Description:
By secondary structure, the protein is an alpha+beta fold. It has three domains: 4-161, Beta-Lactamase, CATH 3.30.450; 207-284, Helix Hairpins; 293-451, 2-Layer Sandwich (Heat Shock Protein 90). It has helices at residues 4-53, 139-175, 177-187, 207-254, 258-287, 290-293, 301-311, 313-318, 337-354, 385-388, 410-420, 447-451, and strands at residues 83-88, 93-96, 110-116, 119-127, 131-138, 297-300, 322-327, 332-335, 360-367, 371-377, 424-429, 436-443. The strands form three sheets. It has a five-stranded antiparallel sheet. Strand 4 and strand 5 (131-138) form a beta hairpin. Helix 7 packs across helix 9 (337-354). The protein starts with a helix and ends with a helix. Pfam families: HATPase_c, HisKA.
Amino acid sequence: MKSIHRYLLFSLIAALLFGTLLISLFLYKKSKHEINELYDSNMQALASVINAQYLSFNAIHQPISGVGKHSQRKEIHREEEFLVQIWKLSGEYVYASHPLIDFPRQAQSGFFTTRHKQKKWRVYTLETDQGFIQISQPQTARNLYIGELAAGLIFPLLLQIPLIGAFIWIAVGKSLRPLQRVSTAIQSRSAVSLDHLPTESLPIEICPVIDELNHLLTRLGKALAMQQSFTADAAHELRTPLAALQLQVDTLARSQDDVERHTAVTALQRGIMRAGSLVNQLLTLARLGPEFSRQSDIVELNQIVRAEIEQHLDQAVARHIDLGFSAAEPIFLEAHAASLHIMLSNLIDNAIRYSPENGKVDIRTYYTDAEVVLEVQDNASPIGSQDRERIFERFYRGSSSNGVSGSGLGLAIVADIVQQHHACITVKTRCDVLGNTFIVSFPKLSLATTLI
């Protein structure tokens, strides 16, 4: 498991170390460049002074002013020292500030770097009318001073690492403290506590997460409430068919002849079918959750209508119902195909069962300016205004049921599917003939979605 605290600490401290390293490298290179330029300038100035003071090398018979006494050392270790050598044009060796150092005259003029006895030397040669002035310095002497200067500059940078590191440690720990408070608040809650988490005094970066979590708790609360309501309603509704089955079994057990037994068996079969239908409807209603509706795709509505009409042809024929369908063009919408099948199945089944024999059920699909419309028309008794407001409630069966068997869940399932598709459903009484019209209006696909 990854730790944000550890990741931030390691990342920031690594960035600090890397930045310090880059700055140190830059300071070292910059110092080296500046020091080399400074010493080169000194060498050039020293050669110019010597050339200005002595116009004739023949006059040299004592140490040159500004150079100092002859050194008897064989090495130059101090960075401020130079090896000064003078030759006449004839090649006669006139002067050396360090006579014991064997360094030959270089043929090249100006500044250059050469190697002598496995050591690098920085050399400046000035050619005059009287001879040659050569100023030399071993690179090791320069490097010594460059190292000391760079160490003086880099040491404060290295000293800042533990100081800034400690500050980073404290800052990261303090910044993540609100997350620890939120974590503690969540851990201290019981499994049934769905109260919103407080967002006061929280950083603005954490507030969106807490807000989304609170929205999730709200949705979860609604889902649990619906689940509890569904469980209570289902338990209540299952009592009636189970009690009826028990009575029918008792009647069958008390039957004394074949006629009574046949009647009891027939009633028991009808009861089992009603109970099975109720259980299937309950299972369908239970699985129509929010996640089920999000698995949407572009579907052709007329194909789904034709498939459901084929599934209900036998039912319609058995009751001599004329089952018709009219559609002017293909109808496309964004929906979950399986949900639409369930919705249409319940609407068609409801229309067939409540329409009288030799009746007619018509299904239409068409476009409007902003919607996709599905209509299911039946010849059932008109639904009153009072029932019309409640027919989509679970287990509600209106006064116009006229003894038709049902669980009161079919239209509740239709309403759930319609809501999940952000559509709406209305019921109107037909004006031309006796019956009702169920109208489902879906949002029309945008042009961009259609092109995709």
